[in-house]
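Supplementary Methods S3. Input chains for the assembly prediction are listed below.
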Amino acid sequence: MANAAKGLIVAIDGPSGAGKSTVTKLLADRLGYIYVDTGAMFRAVALAAKRAGISIDDEAALIRFCQGIDIAFARNNGCCRVVVNGEDVSEAIRTPEISLLTSKISARKPVRDFLLLRQREMGRKGGVVLEGRDIGTVVFPDADVKFFLSASAEERGRRRFQELKAKGEDVSLERTIAEVAERDEQDLRREHAPLRRADDAVDIDSTGLSVEEVLNRMERIIRDRLKAKG
Ligand code: DC
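Predicted structure tokens for the full assembly:
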């Protein structure tokens, strides 16, 4: 799809905790591509809506609200800060409460429509790696390379638990695994853009693989695609 000289559009989809963020960031660095964390965009909307007291059931209010929200990514200390209307919300969007609210708000059509436009705008020039749930199916169905990154629910719950613990959150392992499963359910069952593997995606199961191994597999496939495009 994208011009090879400018770089490819790479889509990485999969359920929460499969390692998408870690891998996507590092992959973008290796390739010298832009990194777009679409989950962070949904999280930013959820946080901002909560602060503004917008009900996720009020479609008209959500539409109006989205029109006034500015989401940007900024590089600081190596990577990827999420900035909403000028405020750095990178940490505030990662709490368990915002994770659950995001899962709900991301099922709302006005929110998906709004972010779809922003995501296409960010990726259309190529030289970009986007991670999310519907990048290869909805946002960029013609992406040059698509990956579907998964791992077992227990493994994903364990990884999330360790992440949250490291940040000093007071969480239990059982609860974290249950929340991962709950979010999977919501993401799979929703009407608009549910989590679905694109038919032409390359499957990578990261259970038992190191980050390096996942990265190497992806990079090899992308470099082959770049060569094929001449
Ligand atoms: O990848 P993440 O955990 O930061 O995603 C947060 C939530 O946003 C998750 O419940 C799924 C949803 N999401 C989505 O619906 N579509 C995307 N492209 C990315 C994330």
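The domain at 8-229 is CATH 3.40.50.300 (Rossmann fold). The pocket of 2'-deoxycytidine-5'-monophosphate is lined by residues 16, 38-40, 42-43, 102-103, 106, 132-134, 183, 187 (CB under 6 Å).
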